[in-house]
Amino acid sequence: MLILKELDTMFGWNGRILRVNxxxxxxxxxxxxxxxxxxxxGGRGFxxxxxxxxxxxxxxxxxxxxxxxxAAGPLTGFALPSSGKMIVAAKxxxxxxxxxxxxxxxxxxxxxxxxxxxxxxEGKSDKPVILFVRDESVEFFNAADFWGLNSFDTERKxxxxxxxxxxxxxxxxxxxxxxxxxxxVSQEGRAGGRPGMGAVMGSKNLKAAVFxxxxxxxxxxxxxxxxxxxxxxxxxxxxxNYAFWKRQGTMSTIEWSQENSVLPTLNYREGVFQKADAISxxxxxxxxxxxxxxxxxxxxxxxIVKDSERKGAEPDYxxxxxxxSNIGMSNLKQVAALNRVADEYGLDTIxxxxxxxxxxxASEKGLIKEKVPWGKFxxxxxxxxxxxxxxxxxxxxxxxxxxxxxxxxGQDSSKWAMHVKGLEISAYDCHTTPGMALAYGTCSIGAxxxxxxxxxxxxxxxxxxxxxxxxxxxxxxxxxxxxVFECLTVCRFPWVxxxxxxxxxxxxxxxxxxxxxxxxxxxxxxxxxxxxTRAFWMREYGNRWGSEMDVPPPRWFEEPLTKGSxxxxxxxxxxxxxxxxxxxxxxxxxxxxxxxxxTLANLGLGNVAKELGAxxxxxx
Length: 620
Ligand code: PTT
Ligand code: SF4
What we know:
single chain, alpha+beta, 7-stranded mixed sheet, 4-stranded mixed sheet, 18 strands, 13% strand, binds tungstopterin, binds iron/sulfur cluster
């Protein structure tokens, strides 16, 4: 039964969070007020605030004590460019820090249209369960017939039961088996929550959450919202790169990365791949069947191809680089098949390509007993299955992520275990790009490109320097991308890829919420969210935290590139450390990278400073 608590009338935001206790099979609605909305905006902001306030430090991320948060922003679901996304967040079982991901899904739209801006999943169901939310009604269904199915079959079966228009977030077998980089899947090709959000869902015995909502979203100025929405959607269609984007989507980045020596190759040893042409965007166009994408998007970038097993797969840049060049695979149809298999099991492709590359290198060096050849389709597919099911010593070891695997393998393997803070690095090699290395080093969930994809700017601006300008650019991007886009939860691609103007967002926000915010105001929210996320990590790690946590792996500093036009290049550790200190200074953090008391206080996080002070010594 649903119990309504206080409600607060707002526009844009629904003002309601659904709190679900999976153990007791009960749900309540928490109303929230303008303070949370205006200070944290939504999405990542809400998620980190909830996790900071409600999680006891030190809990096991795979225990019932962890909470899984689905959170959207105040623009999510309105008819405007690419607004069908949401955040999935929890304490990460991979990193033991803050973890989240951004997923495009009808579940985001339906959650909002059911009247909720976020859902908090608490406890653990005694048996596999499906959560079904239809407006004010919340039901729990036995998932015995679903447990063991892959994510595609799960969603198809759910559609047969609940209809084809529902929005679904579900896990495959990897989430069930608590693989620490299992993610959450939707619509057979959207996947989010790299740092093990699928494992957290599995640990709660939650196979799927199904949403169907029918309420109209509350806009402050409905006419303005409609007009602006139509105008911005039209604007996207006029952009010069629109047609090319629809043809290739993110896949064009393979050629760009190869040209610029940043395409991860053979476990990030190199930045060029001899057979890059075979896995490029142009190669993809030859096997492309159709386009697909997230809801509320008129620049759909999912490219459906027929893979080597004659099934439909949806390759993206990251997936193809990590399951292609990084593991020596050059047959695009086979790479697409590995991509599809990862989606079916619900395994993050970036971490997967990373642990596979690690295993191949360890095997080549004779550090593990198993033979894991580079670039062999069948052997790789079989190892992926072992990882998803935690089968055998190797599958089970890799299922815990690359950092943990390197601790088991020992020798010098931690030097080429490619992660920061336990999260495997995404698909940009940084032998030649110190700015991007800093972006990985300081990203709020571990080594992900999402907060600051500074590399495209850096390659143009000059990659050699470890400059203040680069530090400023990383911070600027962390504010826009990791902050505002992750709090609004709208897709950043209209801006990044087509040049859709950032000035639209405050206008859309005002029409939706009635609240006037400049980009300067939005940046303050970003900084608040970023610092609270940092505090979350510090509270978990306490005095074990040090600036080493923000440094990429030794491979990029010690082993120069041996191929391509930038042969011989590597990062300089002393210069990186200096740049990192410059970054800390500009962020208002001390020399260990811990936010100063005054920095937290200036962002309205005085209480956070007080609590954090009990776990780690704070500078004033
Ligand atoms: C994202 C990360 C990325 S980033 C990719 S491809 W990319 C990988 N995609 C995976 C996949 O596919 N299947 C799978 N099993 N694992 C995967 N792991 C990888 O996850 C994604 C797009 C992309 S495609 C990107 S860059 C942009 N990311 C956005 C973001 O983070 N925020 C935002 N406001 N807008 C964004 N727009 C773009 O969305 P994570 P999606 Mg993703 C099949 O999940 O955890 O955030 O990691 O969600 O709906 O698939 O859209 O070249
Ligand atoms: Fe989804 Fe691509 Fe559209 Fe972004 S541009 S909303 S990732 S389909």
